[in-house]
Amino acid sequence: MKIQEADAKSLLAAQGLPVPPWTVARDPAAARRAAERLFAEGADAVVIKAQVLVGGRGKAGGVKLAKDAAEAEAVASRILGMDIKGITVVKVLVAPAADIVKEFYLACVLDRAARRVLFMGSAEGGVEIEQVAHSDPDAIRTIHAHPHLGLLDFQARWLGFELGLGAHLKEFVAIAKGLYATMIANDADLVEINPLAIVRERAADGTVSEHLQCLDAKVTLDDSALDRHPGLEALRDLDEEDPVDVQARHEGLSFIRLEGDIGCMVNGAGLAMTTMDLVKRAGGQPANFLDIGGGAKSDKVAVAMGLILSDPSVKAILVNIFGGIARGDEVARGLVEARAEQKRVVPLVVRIVGTNADLAAEVLRGVPGIEAASSLDDAVEKAVAAAKAAA
Ligand code: GDP
Ligand code: MN
Predict the structure, then answer these.
(1) Which of 40, 54, 60, 303 has a Cα-to-Cα distance from 107 of 20 to 30 A?
(2) Pocket of ligand 1 (CB under 6 A)
(3) Residue bearing the CA closest to ligand 1, atom 12
């Protein structure tokens, strides 16, 4: 699960990492008020940043500085509504603009093959790291954290020196170890700071000093570990999720939309994969992967039907149920209910075998628009033919 920069920064701040304060605004007036507060506190400028779950916002025009509150409002109204890599910006982060001396890259990522956490650092910060990896791979320094003890002090110091941060070594060691702590505390797969920057700060008495600050943050959480961190689910950004995905997760269904036109409703992930393979072999294109799970009840079947039909390209639906824990008649009843309620009618080919298959056949008998199939091959052929006829 990807989370927004603002939420990633709150996870970093919780581990004591130096992050500039921020406010998230959903309209230009709110951005203006946030900027007014920052200027009142002595900021020389503010930075307005699009909150979207993609990188390269700066290049796309989604990161801009403003010198006063009116400009902040104008900049925010330009960024809000902007399309960045296909995502519409609905919120911006407002923060005091940092006076950047130099930008670095620092990240830790789960290296599954090595079964360790890998640290990556580069003095070429700010730009996308993939680009650095391509043009100048030697500019990226890597080191594996200790599997039990985490990133050791000497490792962090080595990395700091390699990046040319000798003058900020103490701060750097604390930040690198803080990245590791953030990763472990939240079961993250990735914690990335780009840029980690040396920033110039002027104190009230006019003295100038330089410090390290995390100006951007990207954190990816392990979906399978979310149950261990109840608070983290709240960071899921529903603004950027397909409503269909949200509903599927809510109902406990595994649903993945694909390009084709044959909706597939199957119980069991393996059977779902097989069904999709057979559809392809028969010359059809599956519109989705859908595993309604074991022991699916009729209401779940109706919801699954709704998810499939929400895709306008679906021309036919293939239901393939192997009754084990799931009872065939229960699924059949769900199909009949869904059929009665659905607004859009497409050919429905059903193959139900296993537990209560005979009762299922009785339930489905004579229901208009539902075609029973004698075998899986038969079902697939009928579904492919129905989709072709409707195309
Ligand atoms: P990204 O493009 O999505 O990675 O967004 P970033 O937050 O990393 O911002 C992109 C670039 O904008 C950074 O590399 C900086 O050069 C610049 N930038 C971001 N925040 C500030 C800031 O507070 N002050 C200044 N001067 N530049 C900033
Ligand atoms: Mn960045």
Answers:
(1) 60
(2) 47, 49, 55-58, 63, 97-98, 100, 103, 126, 194-195, 215-216
(3) 58
Fold for 1-20+99-240, please state it.
D-amino Acid Aminotransferase; Chain A, domain 1 (3.30.470)
Ligand located closest to 62 CA: 1
Strand, coil or helix: what is 342?
coil
The CATH superfamily holding the domain 21-97 is ATP-grasp fold, A domain (3.30.1490.20)
If DSSP codes are grouped into helix, strand and coil, which group holds residue 135?
helix
How is the chain split into domains, by residue range? 1-20+99-240, 21-97, 242-390
Report the catalytic residues: 105, 192
CATH 1.10.3720.10 corresponds to the domain 242-390: no
- What is the mean pLDDT, run by run of 10 residues, along the chain of 391 residues? 97 98 98 98 96 94 97 98 94 98 98 96 89 90 96 98 97 98 98 98 91 98 94 92 85 91 95 96 96 82 91 95 89 90 89 93 90 93 95 82
Ligand 1 center to 196 CA (angstroms)? 10
**Distance from the alpha carbon of residue 215 to the mean position of ligand 1, in angstroms:** 7
Give me the residue label for tokens 């010198």.
67
User: The pTM is what?
Assistant: 0.80
End-to-end CA distance of the chain: 36
